[in-house]
Write a structure and sequence with these properties.
SapC family protein; about 25% strand; globular; SapC; alpha+beta; three-stranded antiparallel β-sheet
Amino acid sequence: MADHSILDNKNHKDLKVITNFDGEFAEKNNSALIFPTEIKNAQRDYPILFIKNPETGQFQSVVLLGLVANENLYIKAGWQASYIPAMITKGPFTIGFEEQEVNGEKVKQPIIAIDLDNPRVNKMKGEAVFQKNGEASPYLQQVNQSLKALYDGSQLNQEMFDVFIKNELIEPVALNIELNNGDNISLEGNYTLNEEKLSKLSGDALNEMHTSGFLRIAYFITASLGNIQRLIDFKNNLKK
């Protein structure tokens, strides 16, 4: 169970975080959430699909990391991609909110919290969270960038999907894959963008998509599906 604690340089001055990816810390999930602020970088390495949040029914973007449950094909002597999703690089840290008084009014301000029960967190090995003078370490500065990408991206997420839904661009997609050894894998419950409808946008719809920046993101998403072959190649070469 997670034990989240607000991060500070006194109580957590000696904390370290193991950041490598190997057999022990393989992040064994076959997908990871991705946000609009990351899609430009992520589309070079991963297939980007949509899923529905089982609790809210709202769409979310994910990068596909494996073809079966609890599989991450991007880990082999480290992470095999030029970009690692912010949901991964943030490690055991998360954004919380604390009520503070600003100009006489109580407002919720974002703060950083750390999961002290995460197996990557310890006091013996890994990247230091704070420097000896109490300032944020280079590692923590990188984590801050990941958390910022997540926070900023979450603000854009619903707006992006509202535009996609308004223009009827989202459609279900079933992935049926045959491996070299004859195994068949079927991935269902995913969605993507209809490329034909996207290419036929015009008038106000096209202008809205363009000015919002979501047209560019939409084309990144459709282009990313070419990386499904990369996953298939990873899978075919697993035991070679």
